[in-house]
Amino acid sequence: MMLxxxxxxxxxxxxxxxxxxxxxxxxxxxxxxGESKFFICTAIGEPVRLDWFxxxxxxxxxxxxxxxxxxxxxxxxxxYNAIIEDAGxxxxxxxxxxxxxxxxxxxxxxxxxxxxxxxxxxxEFRHGETxxxxxxxxxxxxxxxxxxxxxxxxxxxxxxRFQVLANNNLQIHQVTKADEGVYRCEASVEARGEIDFxxxxxxxxxPPVLSVLQQSFNATADYQESVTFxxxxxxxxxxxxxxxxxxxQLEPSEQYILNRLEGGRSMLTVRNxxxxxxxxxxxxxxxxxxxxERELFLKVFVQxxxxxxxxxxxxxxxxxxxxxxxxxxxxxxxxxRRASDGQTFVDGDKSQDGRFEVxxxxxxxxxxxxxxxxxxxxxxxxEALSRIGGHQKSMFLDIEYIPKFLTNHTIYYSWxxxxxxxSCDVMSNPPATMLWRRERFTISAxxxxxxxxxxxxGKSVLEVTPMSDRDFGRYNCTARNNxxxxxxxxxxxxxxxxxxxxxxxxxxxxxxxxxxxxxxPDSHGGVPISYYLVQYKEVGLQDWRDVRSxxxxxxxxxxxxxPNTTYEVRxxxxxxxxxGEFSHTETFQTLPIREPxxxxxxxxxxxxxxYRLGLVKQDDGGMPIVEYIVKYKTxxxxxxxxxxxxxxxxxxxxxxxxxxxxxxxEITARxxxxxxxxxxxxxxxxxxxxxxAESLFSGLGLGAVVGLGLGALxxxxxxxxxxxxxxxxxxxxxxxxxxxxxxxxxxxxxxxxIEEGKAAYLYTYNSRPTALSTTEAxxxxxxxxxxxxxxxx
Length: 793
Known about the structure:
By secondary structure, this protein is mainly β.
């Protein structure tokens, strides 16, 4: 090269002008993709311009990847980060002032080194699908790619499911979790001895598998109950479990408690279950490989609750429809009960008269009453019942009806100057307004000179004081409400005295008494009868004696009659208008005086050896009983004992009698006429009773018995105290003795004597034998008396 340059320089010198010559520092260059290279172009002569041309023959202009640095006879082309497209022949052209050009060229060969492009690790695949592990490697020439797994080359002979594709990717058919691991992609270019590899982690994702332990649950609303749903999940990666209801994902709250335990167990707890919590819940498990969802069902039982039941008002004769709406789970059965008689109606029922019918559907029941009657008024009970429980409510059926007059008493009687109340009684709903009319004229509430109106709910009273015949006649009562109007006519007629009673009869006639009975008169004169007047007198006398009946009784007893006397009797009825005519006169005769009837007797044992006979007077024969003659004897004796008892007495006391003895009694009543037939009676006296506390105190009062008991108790206490004094030197008596003795001085002679005497007594008492003779006992008693006196002195 240097020889050529010397030769050229010699030629130029000889010619007198230097000829253009161009040379490039390199003729052929190999460059790896991505590398950078520069080329120097040198021109000999007097070039005025140096240009570079790319393989496409285009003049190269400076850019980011291609830079030009040109001096007078030297130019440098820099290629940064070469790419395959940069390969080719590059020319350097020199131009002199005369426009003559010379050029030189260089061949640029670009090859691709082993390059792994965008290799991702790990690469994830879904279980069961055909996986293609991507290993994108480039080089020029094309590299040879080999795959390794677990340090062993993957060949189709040993791995039937594995295949290396034309693009150098590894295909795995029906990839499983067992295929998971690290795979090595190794590429080599034998021409250059170049080799490289990349490790790729293969992850196999398994879609979630979801199962539930229990799919259906039951609960009762409003009882603070809770239900827990459980889902078991598996998959790779571990799936995310969410709970859904009505298309919305459930979030943790006071009502919803979400828990995730080991082993893929997920739980949803629904707390304080209400009716609206029933329905379908979804458990959804999701991971990269997919998702799976299972439904769980919550059946919420709700106690029946009646939500609609209203009072109903119906018009008599029309139809009434009563609706009862209830809710609950399960839907309750609805029944009706009429409170007035307890009759019940259920769905589909129809009463015998066809007026009551029940139809129900979907928690609603309608009771239809056709041709409503006043008797239907009242309470009706609606009951909703299911196996969870029941609920009952009541309504009231009110019936509106046209006014109804309550009485058929339309004829009233009075007389001039006597006020009378004509009552118009009405039952109606709603309440009626009432008016009085007389001959087409309305009687005002204020009334007139002889009429007044008194009104109350359901009642209007017209007070009329007849002053002349014109005030008698017809009066009209009009009752009106929004259902209709009714009229009732009343007649005010002139009253008369009653007609005469009839069928006068005498019964139970005795010496002093007689009972008069009779039939009521056929007409009371329009005014109620006040009483009956019974008149009687002895035959032959002029003056009648009057007896009034008690109220309107048709039986009157005549008293104070004379025996064996003939009387006349007649009866008249008296009302407000006056006294009516007398009945026909009847005669009767009282009985003559006779002996009394035998008395009735009943007995009762008295105190001790006495017996009480009760005497009941019978017919006295017209004269008072003077006395009772009581005769009695034992059943073994012949002689009678007689006791006279005044006639006014009602008992006789027989005493003294013998124990364990049967007695016979004969009782006779006597009046001034004579004796009655005797009445016979027997009784038995029991055995003599034992003398017991009961018999001793039976005659004493309660105060005497209590006094005796207290006296006996006091005596017993005194005896016990004396015994304690002698035997144990204690007790109340000993305390008194010591108290008195302590008041004496120790040097008192009398005190010494007392002590000595007491000591002597105690010594004597204790040293004596328990059995003493009479003399000894007397002596001891005297000695004790002296000691006691000394003590009290």
